[in-house]
Every structure is written in C-alpha cells, then in structure tokens.
Amino acid sequence: MRASQAAIEALVARERARGIPAAAIVLAGFSQGGAMALHTGLRHPERLAGVMALSCSLPLADTLAAEAAAGEPRRADLHGARHARPDDSKARAQRAHETLTGLDYKVEWHEYPMPHSVCMEEVADIAAWLGQVLGPRR
User: Is the pTM of this model over 0.85?
Assistant: First the structure.
C-alpha cells in the first residue's frame, strides 16, 4: 500500500515539476485503483482538484484522520460510485462513504445498478464532475 502510494506521489511530483498546479490534478481510479486514489489523494499535502474513486473501498481508513493534510480536512471533492455486486464490495464502498462524510469530506455519491464495471450514465456523471473540478477548457 505505502509503496503504491509513493509511486503515485512520484507521478504527482513529476507533473508538479512540469508546472502543473496541484489544483489541476485529479487522482482517479476504479476498484483497486480507486482505493489507491483515495488512499493517496486524501493524504497528499497539497489541495488537489479532486479524487475520483469508483467501485472501491477506503484502505487504512483508521489512519486517515491522523495522516490527512493538517489544517484542511476537506481538501478534496470525491466522486464515489457503488455498484450492485453479489459480494460485500457495496458494503465496503458504503463504509468508505460514511467514514469520509464523518470526517467532513465533501463527497459526491452516485449509485448504478450494474456489475463491477462502468456504464454510460456513469461516464456522463464523471465528465460533469471533471468539468466542475477542473473548470472550463481554455
């Protein structure tokens, strides 16, 4: 988990070195990638444009409050999607949502009745969310 976090942080640092402001960077992922986007983005010391986490859980949730960036507990908007699956992933996603809202994070939450995948309705919601957090194209 921590090694993956370091690899993602290195990618963010590379973009920052290229002149991309942190406020123009979104960490996004699906399933395990979504879990890593949440884990890393919520602990990142700079305010990012957002964290988009699809169909995932919140890893190391019990350490988030202590490890989150100091002084700015609501520094990322989150787009969460949970899907109708036969296993407990829906419950894990719901626990992640509850944990984040309990820590005063702003969470945008969507549910889609489908298997562990992405649907066109979700793609449209993602596009709208990206437009909100990244602003209009120039």
Answer: no
